[in-house]
Design a protein that fits this description.
alpha/beta, single chain, 13 strands, Rossmann fold
């Protein structure tokens, strides 16, 4: 629990910062939230759950988060947590603009002796080469009147078991006092292990390693899916078979693409940082190329399937089930569904869209509306609502082709309806 009535300011109230602010308030800290999005601040003031995580619904009415619009109020806080996005641009170059802006804002308004924690995902060296100089330029001395640490965020949107309250964390700092301050803070809010790293560079590298590991393994099974499809082998059954081995294997699953703010983004931070040291991360580059190519592969599967029923992709009515990158959440960040839609439009297809978690961007109000106006269906997100569609319903609406981009439907039952089914590697 909070010690000495410390005040915490969370800079960046998105999928990372907002749950963290709620958690800090629950643990007894006086919490302030700073964000440039006025609409978001108003929703928080109204007590809304702005990220939609169900476990927060019970906590939010019991806590108080004071949103601040004047950055000078940051100067009242003992702990400042930077939780802003770290995206890549259209050419996949890291964009540290949000981290730089947030650091400058905190540095200008810092309370002497305060702890500053960067939770944003960054490559090794950013705290030393980018964040630290900003505070020094503002007249602060790291290790004396400001203590900088890095605790890379770990969230899994929509996960009913693991969330910001119980996921283990790692912490690194420039000095022993900063490390101790950060450890004490995270141990006071998280009901899980908080592991100290030997340096802030190791803490930065940890998150990049985690997500690059996942990206590489997903790329591996995506490539196997393409290969096995040519051999007539269902890759999902093979993965289940391999997963019976009780050691040295971890199941990853192929799909129409990799989304979210972490896996398709973080490897580029390591790739670009390594280039500065004249090192080429070939493995990471190839993994990114494979995973970035899965939306096109999905569209090609659809095109080939339509050809089997004598139809061209151009002019065909295609129903897209799902916009978000992950099941049962409304998060569109880096969603492969968006790329699939873009590719289909470029090829002249007529598109209808339904996502129950993103109603504002859906063109149909329900599943029936999609089926009624489609000749073929692409499942781009494995929402539970889509997994519950009876195969007979596709037949009822005379759907000719189903492309299952998440391998979440019953292949055999759909085929039994006389409908062409194409999965990713099955």
């Amino acid at each position: 629990m909070a010690e000495n009535n410390q005040k915490v300011c969370v800079i960046g109230l998105g999928y990372v910062g907002f749950p963290l602010a709620v958690l800090c308030a629950q643990k007894g800290y006086e919490v302030f939230g700073f964000d440039k999005d006025e609409k978001k601040l108003s929703r928080i003031e109204n007590g809304e759950n702005i990220v939609g995580e169900e476990y927060l619904d019970e906590i939010i009415p019991k806590v108080k988060i004071s949103v601040i619009r004047d950055e000078k109020e940051i100067g009242n806080c003992d702990i400042n947590i930077i939780a802003v996005p770290t995206p890549v641009d259209e050419k996949y170059f890291p964009d540290l603009g949000f981290v730089i802006a947030a650091s400058e804002t905190v540095a200008k308004n810092l309370k002497p002796g305060a702890l500053v924690v960067v939770e944003s995902t960054i490559n090794p060296g950013v705290c030393d080469e980018v964040v630290k100089p900003i505070f020094e330029k503002a007249g602060h001395t790291v290790g004396k009147d400001v203590f900088i640490a890095h605790c890379p965020e770990r969230i899994n949107p929509g996960d009913s078991k693991w969330n910001v309250t119980n996921i283990p964390r790692v912490v690194g700092s420039f000095d022993e006092k900063g490390l101790k301050m950060a450890l004490n803070f995270y141990k006071s809010i998280v009901s899980a292990e908080v592991m100290p790293m030997k340096s802030i560079f190791e803490a930065e590298a940890t998150k990049i390693m985690e997500n690059s590991f996942r990206d590489i393994n997903i790329a591996f099974v995506n490539e196997l899916a393409k290969s096995f499809d040519l051999m007539g082998i269902d890759v999902t059954n093979v993965i289940r078979g391999a997963a019976t081995k009780p050691f040295a294997f971890m199941a990853h699953w192929p799909s129409c693409g990799v989304g979210g703010h972490c896996i398709p983004v973080d490897p580029y931070y390591l790739i670009e940082k390594a280039k500065e040291l004249n090192f080429d991360h070939k493995f990471l580059r190839v993994a990114r190329e494979i995973n970035n190519g899965m939306p096109l592969y999905t569209v090609e599967l659809l095109q080939d399937a339509l050809n089997l029923v004598g139809k061209a992709l151009k002019g065909s009515k295609i129903g897209i089930l799902g916009l978000s990158y992950k099941a049962n959440v409304g998060d569109l960040r880096e969603s492969p569904a968006l790329k699939i839609i873009e590719l289909l439009k470029e090829r002249g297809a007529q598109i209808n869209i339904f996502d129950p978690h993103v109603p504002g961007k859906s063109t149909s109000k329900n599943i029936e509306g999609i089926l009624e106006n489609s000749e073929a269906i692409v499942v781009a997100t494995n929402h539970k609502e889509f997994m519950e569609i009876p195969p007979e319903k596709f037949k009822e609406y005379d759907i000719k082709v189903v492309v299952d981009g998440k391998n979440c439907l019953d292949k055999e039952k759909i085929l039994a309806q006389g409908i062409i089914y194409k999965g990713i590697g099955r």
